[in-house]
Amino acid sequence: MDHNRAESTESGTIQGEDEDSVQLKVSEDSEPAPKAQGDPPPEPEISANCDNQADRGREEVGGGEGDEVDEEDEEDVDDEGWEDILGSGRLKKKVIEAGDTSAERPQNGDAVKIGLEVFVGGDKDEAEWLVALPWHELEFFVGECEVVQAVDITVPLMRPGEETLVRSCSDFAYGGIHGLPDAGIAAGATVQLKLKLIECLSCISKTEMSIDERLGIGQRKKDRGNVWYSRGEIQMATQCYKRAVEFFDDERLDLDAPIDKLSLEDKSLRSMLDERVKTLNNLSLCQYKQEAWDSALDSLRAVLKIEVRNFLVALLLLIIHYLMP
User: Fold this and answer.
1) What is the pLDDT of residues 105-146, one digit of tens each?
2) What is the pLDDT of residues 26-51, one digit of tens each?
3) Is pTM beyond 0.85 here?
């Protein structure tokens, strides 16, 4: 997104703070969330709905959540070792190195760590594939819109330690409209992924996480939502923002009553509230664009509990009330 471009909408102004950020301007003292150092660019995805990506993958493979597909079960593997995951030829995997067969496969909502490399331009000859995104590691929650759909569908079919090639059409990768130009991935391009499930991370409840941990995960999800929004994937962005808001919370905060942010002595709590406001603003705009009026009103009311004198949000409330059927 152009750093200096602002898109005017009926519901407010979108600020281009950086190329991955899109914020609804509601407060002059709001600062952009810091980016994690060394993080690779988030992988955009094209999908109308990401709530059950991994489930859809399992269902089309022939199994539901909790079903095991062990090595003794024969999958449809061609002479070159490619398994047609969906049966349509659009998403295939080829195991390079088997994982730990005694370990469980990840399920939706599990935190995982993977290694990923993306190739373009090839066909059947492996030598023709060129590196578009170099090998990097990333952590994400399975089935929560944080990675391309090809990864979200394939990872639940892998075991820890497994390394595999994934060949995907653009529908499950970088889309037929935008692609990923900075990496040389054209719109509509078939890609090949080299994917390794490094480990399934131990999950603890949000209440047991430190503030810094919750801030980090929430910001990562908010940043992913910003990417989807910038690509016009409003439903994807909505899901990421909803999940991000859940992490911008603390048991010491009573979010059911107005909060005097400046009275909080803990700077981490103030930072959390700032991020919560930004994310709720973005969420409300996504809901507004989808004409989910009641949900947009709820998000804006939640902002006003933190920023009572936010007149722009109050104005948006009036606009939405006026527009509601």
Assistant:
1) 999 889 999 999 999 987 666 668 999 999 999 999 999 989
2) 333 333 333 333 444 444 433 334 54
3) no
* Amino acid at position 264, single letter: L
Cα–Cα distances (Å) from 261 to 25, 45, 235, 303, in that order, read 18, 36, 30, 12
**Measured between alpha carbons, how far is 220 from 214 in angstroms, rounded to an integer?**
10
Q: In what order do the strands lie in the sheet with 130-141?
A: 83-84, 91-97, 163-168, 191-201, 111-120, 130-141
pLDDT at 208: 83
Where is pLDDT greater, at 3 or 199?
199
Domains of the chain: 6-32+206-323 (1.25.40.10), 53-201 (3.10.50.40)
